[in-house]
């Protein structure tokens, strides 16, 4: 699915930059095999993408799995077709149900059919997560910028964008306005919402409410801060696309107005004072005084703010937050004999996530730290030649999910970054011809 010459050039760059033939081999195999293993071109021209070992398409994962391919797609029209097909399928899903996070290949009724929420045969799971709606907008903007192709943004995008704006506006006042309810009976508390499916009590902040985190675990305080930061960034992208492609000043104005409100909410409620680290970003807040100081391995995370575009690597509040996250003050930061890094309440204790290690490298200004973390990922695959969802920080042979496509993609993105091939350079080097 990726042009051989394009891949060969990238492999050469990775090998040269890292001086590590094993890293180069892992990179080449993952880039060659990862996308064909999960992507299926459908008869309508769209592309269905499995999340890995689950037969459904997550809006978040299907976009995140494409990140390293975006870096290289500028000179590969066939690859562009596949990636644009992913976007168009995402947009159709969003228009069908913007509250759903994962969808079926067809209307076959597979998935979590017993959940107490408004399911449909197209929906695999209906855990509402604010970041699920950020990723299609980000993917649309990046594909438009990198490829310059006019077929990236079509009426499907406009329909989905309006649905996203409507939902995010309603969920600014979840208590009074939201139609969304979700309950899953007989499973972990993190898989359901309290108060008969309404979720924890919140008060409006300007931010937009989210039922679940990027990990698919229920939020503790309702307003997921890194998710709202990502929403703020993509609302800026939506403004550009509405003005320059859709010629829709009303849509652009709505995007900017909501962005201003969310940003004000982040600054008013999402920045807290920590006794050791000073002013830091909270992971979640409720508008009632509750806040949660932690980070989760899944993107968008607080650690990933430079990658989602909300904060620079040198921003003082981000640096203080980063210091907190990479310390024992983050309850999901684990130190072991094999690895040190961020895990998740979604997986067992003392399990570090390769995604978080890759994000730590990608968000660092240090080339030495990037290379160190790339080699750590190389050495903690448990002898499988694959990245996993998580692994025990004392024993990488103990892991969750034997194959996790998103983690493989993040390894590849970090390898490309070490070689100076990044999404930022792809965005800046290709002049759009729209």
TrEMBL record:
Keywords: Hydrolase. The keyword Hydrolase applies. Signal peptide: none annotated. SMART domains: DUF1237. The keyword Hydrolase applies. One of its GO terms (molecular function) is hydrolase activity. InterPro entries: 6-hairpin_glycosidase_sf, 6hp_glycosidase-like_sf, GH125. This is Glycoside hydrolase family 125 protein.
